[in-house]
Amino acid sequence: MMQMKTVGVVTTGGDAPGMNAAIRAVTRVATAKSLQVLGFERGWEGLLTNTFRHLTPRGVGGIIQLGGTMLHTARCPEFKTEEGLQKAVHTLNLNKIDGLVVIGGDGSFRGALDLSKRCETKMIGIPATIDNDVYGTDETIGFDTTVNTAVTEIDKIRDTAISHERIFIVEVMGRQRGFLALTVGLTVGAEIILVPEDHCELSEVVETLKENSRKGKKAGIVVAAEGCGKVIEIAQVIEEETGSEVRLSILGYAQRGGSPTARSRLLAILFAEKAVNLLCEGQGNRAVGLRNGEVTSIALEESTSGTKPLNKNLLKLADMLAT
Ligand code: F6P
User: Fold this and answer.
1) pTM of the model
2) Residue 2 has what pLDDT?
3) CA 110/CA 262 separation, integer angstroms
4) Disulfide-capable partner of 179 in 126, 132, 142, 243 (CB 3.0 to 4.6 Å)?
5) Active-site residue, 319 included
């Protein structure tokens, strides 16, 4: 078995609260095992341009509580080209990187898989995205923080909605998936949750809100996943058809920032330890994750080819509870 000496770390794609906690834990666990750690900057761009800094246990001090990523991140279209991938391979070889820990979402994992087919460096993916849409893990780093951020904001919106007897359409992030909208909607007691995985006719939404109004419930919260699109039109139709006052609130990028919750930090720590251990055992091209409460790993190939299912029973439960 090849002796692991140097490990690279990179955060790619959209940032997620807890990425810093993961960088810190990877660095400290790896250093404790006598490995050298290089942190590549600005996502894949750092591999394309050979831009990195040496990470030391002291150098990652004071970041566990910080949102964002100290290594920065970027969307990097060039990395998707053969030329870009070859530049990254060159950087990995130049710096004798035996293992690369890729902290990000499913797009980042696809990048790691592409790289793994072109070099000897062993890739390990750590799932970190506010969307929670990575196959093979029940939860991703950052999801819990974002859920809490959105819930805090929507609780405030509920106060003004009740005071004015208005209906609020609140758009949350999630890309093409509804994990965020579902968990947020359920935990704020939304009257309606709209997710891309479960098409809901607008006429049904209108009917539910009218029925609520007849029952004396004049205010309402509709949580819509950004993947459903057209929130402005949805708001207009609801206002016209229900006769209620409707307001639209797009929570936006505030959802991606902020200090990670204890849960996001804990996942970051446990995933990081697992990632370094896998590399030290000589394993590579795997994605770590949480399954039924256990930290585990699956092949990157499997992680990137699967589609994580949304628990639609929870939508029914949310409906039942929103009476
Ligand atoms: O994947 C995380 C995420 O915040 C999505 O929820 C959102 O659709 C997307 O990133 C926004 O990407 P960008 O930062 O490139 O605008």
Assistant:
1) 0.97
2) 72
3) 28
4) 132
5) no
